[in-house]
Amino acid sequence: MGQRRASKAAANGFAHASRANAIHALDILHELDPTRHVRSWNMGRGLQETKLVVAESEATVAEDLRLRLTRLGAGVVDVVGSTNAAIDSVGRHQPDLVLMDARLAGEFGGVEATSVIWRRQRIPSVLLVGHSDVDMLRRVSETDSFGYVLKPFDEAELVATLEMALRRNSLERRIEESEKRYAAMLASIGEGVISTDSAGRISFMNPVAEALTDWKLLDAQGLPIDEVLRVEPLEKPEGTVLGVGIELSEPGASPKVATLRARDGSTVPIELIATPISGNRRGQGPALGSVVALRDISQRLQAEQELRDSEQRYRRLFEDMDEGVAINEAVRDGDGHVIDYVILAANPAFEHHSPYTIAAAVGKRATELYQLPSEYIQQWWESHAPLRRPAHTEMWHEPTGQWLHVVASPITDGRFATFFTDITARKRAEEALQHSEQRFRAIFDQTFQFTGLLDVEGTVIEANRTALDFAGISEEEVVGKPFWETIWWAHSSELQARVRKAVLTAAAGQFVRMEATHPGADGSLHTVDFSLKPVRNEDGKVVLLIPEGRDITERKLAEDALRKVEAERRELEARVSQAQKLEAIGGLAAGVAHDFNNLLTVVAGCCDMLLSSETLAAADRQVVEEIQDAGTKAGGLTNQLLAFSRKQVLKPEVVGLHTLVSTVAQLLERLLGEDVEFTLRSEPDLWAIEVDPGQIEQAIINLAVNARDAMPRGGELTIEILNVDVAPGSVHTSRGVARARYVLMSVRDTGTGIPVEVRARIFDPFFTTKEVGKGTGLGLAMVYGIVQQSGGYVHVDSELGRGSCFYLYFPAADGAARETGPVRPRPARDARGTETVLLVEDDQAVRLVTSRALSDSGYTVHEAANAAEALRTFEKHAERIDLIITDVVMPGISGREMVERARSIKPAIRVLYVSGYPDDAILRHGILRGEVAFLQKPFSAAVLTRQVRNVLESPDGLA
Question: 398: closest CA among 380, 375, 373, 371?
Answer without folding.
Answer: 371
